[in-house]
Amino acid sequence: MLENYFCAPKTLRRLRGGPSGPYIDGFADALERDGYAKTAAVRYLKAAVHFGRFVQIGGGVLADADACTLEAFGRHFQQCQCPESNGGTTGYHARFGVKLFHRHLVGLGFCRNPVLAAEHVAEPALVTAFGHWLRTHRGACEPTIRLYSRGATELIDALGEDIDGWTVRHVRDFLLDRADRCGAPSTQRRITSLRAFLRYLTFTGRRQGDLALAVPAIANWRLSRQPCCLSEDEVTRLIAASDGQSPGPLRDRAILLLLTRLGLRAGDVAQLRFSDIDWKYGTVQVSGKGRYQVRLPLPQDVGDAVLRYLDRRPNITHSDRVFLRSIAPWGPFSSGDAVSSVVKHALRRAGIKAAVKGAHLLRHTAATEMLRHGVPLDQIGLVLRHRSIDMTAYYAKVDVALLQRIARPWPEVQS
Fold first, then answer.
1. Does the annotation count 44 as an active-site position?
2. 99, 178, 190, 265: which is the annotated catalytic residue?
3. Are 104 and 138 in a shared domain?
4. Domain range holding 192?
5. pLDDT in tens, 78-121
6. Which residues of 164-174 are buried (b: 16+ CB within 10 A; e: fewer)?
């Protein structure tokens, strides 16, 4: 309720008396539920009241507020002298608070959601069906579906919706034209997405002939680089850099241990749920690419770190994810990028400089440590959930002792 943030009767009457008044108590409850600090919530509540007055003075009604109204309020605040702007609310806090308030009104059904409608770009029906097929039959995750759908949409926009009229030359010219505008990594992603889409057309019988064969390849020596990994001392420093008893450090320590001990992907950690952990038998179930599920042993130190975090974890009931954001609004990670960000900040705190700074660095570290301790490649592949032994063999490069045993001596030069 509003009384959790304000106590003066005059202030309470003023806040509840304007156009935003009927919704201000619910907004206060939402801010408290989402974990916003009291000082921040006070600013956002004042901004919400200010926004209601702004809409009223402009001759509008709060129910019609849209993205343009929010932008107009941001411009107004730069030269605003309204009484509602007093109290230390900065322009940034006002704009952000109003954005939260508008989102709250949309959730109540009081306002329409024109922001999402404006951002939504209608995609061709064929691309929508392609995305559904990837999700249902290939077990693709949403980021992969978005990437592949974007490539398919670009192809349809360039060649037209009459796929029977597409030729090998059309497809090749499209890709080569796009390749001239971007670097090799972007070109490689576009090649992958186009091949998937063209194979889908052939598989579903929408087109005769496999046009995926027309997509050229670019020079890319797969697995040619050395895997980037941390030394044992660096791993110890990395984990020690997340010591602390507050929820943030406890969460980071548990995440780092999961990544370094089990070699999980960032998405595996972000999607981890309470039901995935079997505390009785000390195992954790991981669902990776293509819905490939495997149950891994949960080491004692990892389980202890997760339990310590759960003991201090924010108590929210709308999510069964194990790991949550450490700042408001409390909620699960939106993607594996947040897990990689945890690793990046931990590396910075530990003073470790590495060529790769994301969660995959610790996956490589886990694999190389297992190899150095004599774990066979096929068993490492099972832990990492590789579908091909060739991927696991990538880590054999770091086993210098093994390579020395199989290396042939350099022949002597005969004079």
1. no
2. 265
3. no
4. 125-214
5. 677 776 555 444 567 778 888 898 888 888 888 776 544 444 45
6. eebeeebbeeb
